[in-house]
Amino acid sequence: MWVVSCTADGGTRLEARAVLDPGPGEALLELLCCGLCGTDLFKLANANEREGTVLGHEVVGTVVAVGRGVSSPNLGQRVVVPHHVACGRCPLCARGSETLCPTFKENLLAPGGFAEYVLVRERAVQRAAWVVPGHVPDAAAAFLEPAACVLRGLDKATLRVEDGCVVVLGAGSMGLLHLLLVRSLLPQVRVVVCDPMEPRRRTALTLGASVACATGVELEAAVRDASAGLGADAVFDTVGGRAALRTSLAVARGGGTVVLFAHAAEGELADYELNPFFKTEQRVVATYSGAVAEQQRVAELLASGRFDPAPLVTHRLPLSRFDEAVHLCREREALKILLEPVDA
């Protein structure tokens, strides 16, 4: 099979490897598609993966073999399986911090999603394999894991009114995924999307944003109008870094919540004044990944048709054009790219 393998300098190469056989409790998937996500790009940019690592975790595939003891999923079924699955039993899991569970960090996809065949380890097969209904296309199913990450952040925002105002900083694929989930779950909420790129602002409006604006004074004015002067109930930062955090705090209302969703630069520190933050009772919360519970809720939304992220897919490319996919994302010429088998 063909896989996209990391090189020591942060690059990648296409190489041939043997297909892995499933052991007890495991399942082998033939790749249909795998989404290229911001975490993959972050890891490549920082060249912090070991040589030979295969990235990719937003996998949709067909079950072509199963190990002993697997009763579901069945051969021929189309499934989505996340790469991280918590144990569900430890003290952190019991407290709702499943994404901090020590076993959650283990990658349960081998060698990784950017491969023509992907072996799924037992815990993921048992706890997190979702059989995709026939009416849900691959391009929507591929968003199960990233949408679960977004949903976890929406929960942390604890929005209390159905007709409130939220801000999404960044109109890349993850920012627009926030927009689509808010629209699905809280259709009356006014959503202000902020991005410096005019084409992405147009896309946000097409997908249901109440307002799409650039940064600075324009954003502050848009939030005042959308919130009747109150400020945003929640701000979802999909950009990352201290400048975005300052912007988020500036437009959040007193008592509002800023949700940190994106990576900052390595070693970057926050630098905002503490006393105003203290006196306004604002909250800054971090959200990392998504657990099985969020994945199940997203699966229900996808199956019901209330949530359709497929319009975010702008490119479908074979694994052999992986470097091109990375370039398109880095140059902001694509939103979501799905990688497919070489001969697709």
Walk me through the topology.
Elements: E1 2-6, E2 12-16, E3 27-36, H1 38-46, E4 58-66, E5 78-80, H2 91-94, E6 109-110, E7 117-120, H3 122-128, E8 130-131, H4 138-141, H5 144-157, E9 165-169, H6 173-185, E10 190-194, H7 198-206, E11 211-213, H8 217-226, E12 232-237, H9 242-251, E13 252-260, H10 274-279, E14 283-286, H11 292-304, E15 313-318, H12 322-330, E16 336-340
Give the strand tally. 16
Radius of gyration from CA coordinates: 20 Å
- Helix run count: 12
CATH topology of the largest domain: Quinone Oxidoreductase, Chain A, domain 1
Amount of beta strand = 15-25%
Task: Give the structural class.
Answer: alpha/beta
- For the terminal residues, how far apart are their CA atoms? 13 Å
The fourth-level CATH homologous superfamily of the largest domain is: Medium-chain alcohol dehydrogenases, catalytic domain
The dominant shape is globular
Report helical residue fraction: 25-40%
CATH C-level label of the largest domain: Alpha Beta
Mean pLDDT, all residues: 95
Given as residue ranges, the uncertain stretches (5+ residues, pLDDT < 50) are none
